[in-house]
Amino acid sequence: MTVGITGLGAVAGIGADVDTVFENLRSGRGALAEMRGFDRTRYNAQRLFEIDDRPEPGVDEPRRATGFLLRAVEEALADAGIDLDDSYTGPTEVPVLVGTGLRELRSAELWWRDEAEFRAEHLHFGTALRRRLGAADTHTLSGACSASLYALALGTDLIELGETETVVVAGADVITESMFGLTDRFQQVPTDGPRPFDLDRKGAVMGEGAAAVVLRASDSVDAGPRASLRSVGINCDAHHVTAPDPDGVSESIRQAHRRAAVEASDVDMVMLHATGTPMNDKVEAESLHRVFGNSVGRPLVTGIKSMTGHTSGSAGLLGLVAAVRSLETGVVPPITGLTTPTPEAEGIRLVSERPVTESMSLAQVHAFGFGGVNAVAVLEVSHP
Amino acid sequence: MNVITGTFPMLPGASEATDLLTRQPTGERVDPAAVLGRKGLRYKDRATTLGLAAALLTLRDAELLGEDGRADPATAVVVSSNLGNLDTVCRVARTIADETTRGVSPMDTANASSNVIASEIAIRFGLRGPNLTLCNGPTSGVDAVRWASLLLRAERADRVLVLGVEPDNETVRAFTGKRRCLDGAAAMVLESAEAARERGARTRAELVSCVRSSGVSECLELLSGNVRTRPGMWLVPETDGESLPERLLTGVARTDLSATWGAASGALGVLQCVAAVGWFDSGEHGSVHAVAGSDADDASAGVVLESAKEYR
Asked: Which N-terminal stretch is annotated as signal sequence (chain A) (predicted)?
């Protein structure tokens, strides 16, 4: 049984659909801008990768994450040729799994502090998915920055175990003031934007985004899917609440390779987690060396967070959507802001400054989160 | 077939699964430090310490805790909690508005992420399997049991610690509109029947099926399709005082755990499974149906548990 990816959806600061997001990624255009929804006098950092949809500057409103989620899911369903009108008639049985770092906690902040209208039934996404799509088998998984790839792993399992033929997997996050405020106070926040894998990287900058894919059981000869999802490896470092561990990260990559029955030397492209924090990038580079060994210089290696910001739990799936587009087009977007690679990245074929075009078929996508939750997906696009 | 081999209810007045059906809560708050010791608990939030204590006692009940206080690294963790870090998030946002970010404490950083309970459990007991946090509304606890079962069938772990936990505080009460909230945890170990048999573990209950549907009666219909006999007990969803129609499982005894122990939110489903184990522990046989999520919610999820048939 092969798990096919038949539809894609994405919303980020750099675009409200997959094509616009990918076009901006390949052109190296980022969404870093002056903060729009928060009171700037409260923070050291002044810029974030927000989605520009606030009614007016400095005014925030609840349930934005839900809105971005629905937009990404609807784009993915339409792309997969699933007619939404049919599902309005009753609860569809298609499971919808949503991975999120911060769920609708931003709305809870606005409720508590500003008495904004927000009810408990909307803290998870199921209520909105039921009302909009009729979906009754919905799951909000809150697993920090790897949540959407964790959700992808569960969606893959549902299909491989024969429990369902179609699954929608999504990720959605907007920035909470609590998480942003804590990083603003205690981590160095780069004023000129994040510079993943650069020697002078100073830290991550938060962003907002949503992504969705439609997964379908398919035969390998089926020409239908845009890509095949070969595996998703998931594990936990059991090491530290915020710091990553190279043992756990390496094992998650190996697990993904094992489950996909591929060798590291088969991989053509790596979509990094690459947050731009000193710790993540060091551990991620070390882990690539450990797993890839002599073939570490083979795959093209990139990341998107210097253009989208770190979009928390939705980041993994947003990276995966970009990776599918890269495999389809042969174009790998650059890591902007990367001029002098960190010493740990020596020998790794980092794409920087301008996009690289190559014929590729196999990619792996990384997502690692607070609490040591790691997820790595392997996907394939076959070119006729 | 997956089976339950250990449980613990971390609630005031309960010290084993059977207590959930026979006792009433005392007025006191349970003290996780009495189980865990004070060391290292200072900056952990209430939900995390409740979860750690319930995890320890459940792993011990399942005879999985080594002398070093660690368990098999191939164990997965699935936690369900809707409100675990709500108070931290709201408090930090308020502090920033009042004092700018200079007023916030670094000790809140881990607690600002909703998966802190599951990751702290993994760290303390050395559990390197998949680590999931469900924040899925009223059905969340039952959903956690379903994902635990899937992780076993997908061969992603040898066994799974499933835990439901909700704290009680001012923010939670204001947000849910409930006057009496759980402030406790319930946990269980789920593993395959073969794995349990191999290590000589006592099977306390068998997990027959997990379902999810648009409402309570649809959910019960799916559950009944998966069971050979009429249930001996129905653990009902929280309904905010609305009574469930008489035509549903007519004649089957109904138990509302939230009426006894307080509004349980994301902890309810796991609490129900632990109560079912308690029912079997007290000598009852047959099956129990448990449903979380009422018709007023976005969906209902249910499980069927059966008493163990020893080594058939």
From this structure: none
